[in-house]
Amino acid sequence: LYTIHVIHSGTFDKTPAIITRRYTDFERLHSRLRRRHGDEMDGVYFPRKKLRKNFVAETIAKRSRAFEQYLSHLHSLPELRSTPTFLEFFYLGDLRAGQMLMRVGRYQDALGSLLNALRLQEKLGCHQLLQLNQLQRVHWFFTLSALVTCFQELEQLSEAQEHCDRALQDLAPSQEALQQHQLHPLLIPLLQSNVRLSWKISKDKRRWEALLQEIQEQGIDIGNQPNLKECLIKESIEDSEGLGKAKSKSEDVP
Fold first, then answer.
1. pLDDT, averaged across the chain
2. What start and end residues bound the annotated signal peptide (predicted)?
3. Can you say whether the dihedral through the CA atoms of 26, 30, 31, 33 is positive or negative?
């Protein structure tokens, strides 16, 4: 079992994200990437298994270093690091585990998986929205919204409001998008959650109240919307669609 510390390179990173994977997990990653992205995988070296002395300390140390170089090489290739196969290897398991635990009301247990998924996405650059594809955006906003729900259920209101605010900073629509009703499906539930949370912790909520008012003035029914938890519980993380699509014509979120 290999323990992988994912860090920001070029600086001392005090908060690495950690995952554990077996040789077979690496092998599966490589096989799928070769099958689906053969051209981009030319020249990517994969550490092979030895038939003998497989568990000798020297062999394990060499293979660990080789796997580190292998993952760094994959991440250096823009065409590969944003593929569902690559993302699956790193954080999708944590997202699915977090959602499953939320569905049965185990919010404290879900936090561990979701926070690690958040850290992994940050280390992999998945918080830089302008550089993300549609699938990565789905995962990013699902993670932040799920953390809002868990912290809220656990009465950790400041943490819930902080993650809610972080999501809304990126989801707030332009005036043009607002007039064309091009709103992300999570926008209204997050706005309503943020207003309630801000009121409870005595934080300024005027910006988000004003945006809710603007949305209502555009003829959108903000009272007949599923709440944040309902949106997340029914979402299929395996599906690259779902929360990634706006309810109207456009899939692009300003």
1. 87
2. none
3. positive
